[in-house]
């Protein structure tokens, strides 16, 4: 930098300023390359936007290509007694359900214990036994919980809650006159209901009084657990839980309250209508994205980032061919064109949907609608064909991927060219700097020679004047 600042000292010329101007002029050669790199980056961003819209369309047609969509069932309930959900194993039908009682968890409480919470209940290691009256197969009918010597009522509660196999929740309750140990089963139903709570002999410390108890340590049943009781079309059913599976094949019942309800299991036409509407909306959104990216404003002269792009033309052409092609055989009474489902292609290239015509096609023959969109085992339907095309366009060798790869390659090539040009400019400026230094030195020497000659001539003039 010192050499740059020293330029012009000898000659008196603004060589530093001239060198800066030359440098600016040389770097101006980089601007076209910078603009090309920026243009390719903008194209990649535009390709990404188009990629997102096409992926959304692929998802929409992929849903329509699934046969399970047209075979799905819905469970519709009239009444507040229950809620229901149907899966693929359900069969269409009507069911009358009467809920008599809901399943509930059993609860149990000890007799009142006239002690403070921080007083010890036992002076030796003891055992608390919880009994279950009708334990299901594989479950013990009694649980034995170890209680350490010196344990307070709260510590007994904690020991119960910490026991993995107890399957109960313990708490301490103050009834206004004293404390009780209260237990509730974690599961509903008679089989999970607690029927007894007994203490090993010597559990209570001396001086502790158990009120209102015939036997020291006896437990009092507050509420037994109950099974849910209901009927389906007059058939009585009992369940330990309020969520019932298997009473009606493929249907899960969630009992809410005693009462009557009518359950209808039928084809889920709403899901099909929503899927078709989603397909139309996704395609129109894709067309809208393409329109924005390829638009041209004559007034401003502004062109879309992908105007005239070959990848965009490929996408539009392939999707348009799929949409306009026939699917089924009209001679066999099959749906063959989108227009038969109330879907038409507008002049602007978007799709429009007539919901009433679609509803009619679904009501007349859901199977025909399924074959049109989802196709059969060997022949893809309209949605399957569009899904395959979208997948190819988005794939590793698809039009979009290749277009993005091409733009990235051009950016890499331009970046390398930019670096080479920068290096060339740096070399040119350095050459100018050397030449300017030489010029500065030459002019400085010439100035010195001029000054010397001027002095000599002046001396000669003075000498001649004295003579």
Automatic annotation (TrEMBL):
<dbReference type="Pfam" id="PF07196">
    <property type="entry name" value="Flagellin_IN"/>
</dbReference>
<comment type="function">
    <text>Required for morphogenesis and for the elongation of the flagellar filament by facilitating polymerization of the flagellin monomers at the tip of growing filament. Forms a capping structure, which prevents flagellin subunits (transported through the central channel of the flagellum) from leaking out without polymerization at the distal end.</text>
</comment>
<dbReference type="InterPro" id="IPR010810">
    <property type="entry name" value="Flagellin_hook_IN_motif"/>
</dbReference>
<dbReference type="Pfam" id="PF02465">
    <property type="entry name" value="FliD_N"/>
</dbReference>
<keyword id="KW-0966">Cell projection</keyword>
<keyword id="KW-0975">Bacterial flagellum</keyword>
<dbReference type="InterPro" id="IPR040026">
    <property type="entry name" value="FliD"/>
</dbReference>
<protein>
    <recommendedName>
        <fullName>Flagellar hook-associated protein 2</fullName>
    </recommendedName>
</protein>
<keyword id="KW-0964">Secreted</keyword>
<feature type="domain" description="Flagellar hook-associated protein 2 C-terminal">
    <location>
        <begin position="225"/>
        <end position="448"/>
    </location>
</feature>
<keyword id="KW-0969">Cilium</keyword>
<keyword id="KW-0175">Coiled coil</keyword>
<keyword id="KW-0282">Flagellum</keyword>
<comment type="similarity">
    <text>Belongs to the FliD family.</text>
</comment>
<dbReference type="Pfam" id="PF07195">
    <property type="entry name" value="FliD_C"/>
</dbReference>
<dbReference type="InterPro" id="IPR003481">
    <property type="entry name" value="FliD_N"/>
</dbReference>
<dbReference type="InterPro" id="IPR010809">
    <property type="entry name" value="FliD_C"/>
</dbReference>
<comment type="subunit">
    <text>Homopentamer.</text>
</comment>
<feature type="domain" description="Flagellar hook-associated protein 2 N-terminal">
    <location>
        <begin position="11"/>
        <end position="105"/>
    </location>
</feature>
């Amino acid at each position: 930098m010192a050499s740059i600042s020293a330029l012009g000292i000898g000659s008196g010329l603004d060589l530093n300023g001239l060198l800066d101007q030359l440098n600016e002029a040389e770097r101006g050669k980089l601007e076209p390359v910078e603009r090309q790199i920026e243009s390719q980056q903008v194209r990649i961003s535009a390709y990404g936007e188009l990629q997102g819209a096409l992926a959304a369309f692929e998802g929409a047609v992929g849903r329509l290509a699934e046969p399970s969509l047209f075979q799905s069932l819905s469970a519709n309930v009239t009444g507040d007694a229950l809620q229901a959900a149907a899966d693929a194993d359900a069969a269409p039908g009507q069911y009358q359900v009467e809920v008599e009682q809901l399943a509930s968890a059993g609860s149990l409480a000890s007799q009142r214990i006239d002690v403070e919470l921080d007083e010890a209940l036992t002076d030796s290691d003891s055992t608390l036994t919880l009994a279950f009256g009708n334990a299901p197969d594989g479950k013990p009918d009694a649980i034995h919980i170890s209680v350490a010597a010196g344990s307070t009522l709260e510590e007994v509660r904690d020991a119960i809650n910490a026991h993995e196999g107890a399957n109960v929740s313990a708490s301490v309750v103050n009834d206004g006159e004293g404390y009780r140990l209260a237990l509730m089963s974690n599961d509903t139903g008679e089989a999970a209901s607690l029927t007894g709570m007994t203490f090993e002999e010597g559990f209570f410390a001396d001086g502790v009084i158990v009120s209102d108890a015939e036997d020291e340590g006896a437990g009092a049943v507050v509420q037994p657990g109950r099974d849910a009781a209901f009927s389906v079309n007059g058939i009585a059913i009992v369940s330990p839980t309020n969520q019932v599976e298997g009473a009606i094949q493929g249907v899960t019942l969630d009992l809410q309250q005693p009462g009557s309800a009518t359950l209808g299991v039928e084809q889920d036409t709403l899901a099909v209508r929503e899927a078709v509407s989603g397909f139309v909306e996704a395609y129109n959104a894709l067309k809208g994205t393409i329109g924005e990216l390829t638009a041209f404003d004559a007034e401003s002269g502004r062109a879309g980032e992908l105007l005239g792009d070959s990848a965009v033309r490929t996408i539009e052409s392939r999707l348009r061919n799929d949409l306009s092609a026939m699917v089924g055989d009209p001679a066999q009474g099959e749906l063959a064109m989108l227009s038969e489902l109330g879907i038409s292609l507008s002049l602007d290239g978007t799709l429009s949907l007539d919901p009433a015509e679609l509803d009619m096609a679904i009501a007349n023959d859901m199977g025909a609608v399924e074959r049109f969109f989802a196709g059969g085992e060997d022949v893809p339907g309209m949605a399957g064909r569009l899904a395959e095309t979208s997948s190819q366009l988005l794939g590793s060798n698809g039009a979009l991927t290749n277009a993005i790869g091409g733009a990235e390659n051009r950016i890499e090539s331009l970046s390398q060219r930019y670096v080479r040009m920068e290096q060339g400019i740096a070399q040119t400026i350095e050459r100018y700097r050397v030449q300017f230094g030489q010029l500065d030195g030459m002019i400085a020497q010439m100035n010195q020679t001029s000054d010397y000659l001027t002095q000599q001539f002046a001396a000669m003039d003075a000498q001649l004047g004295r003579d």
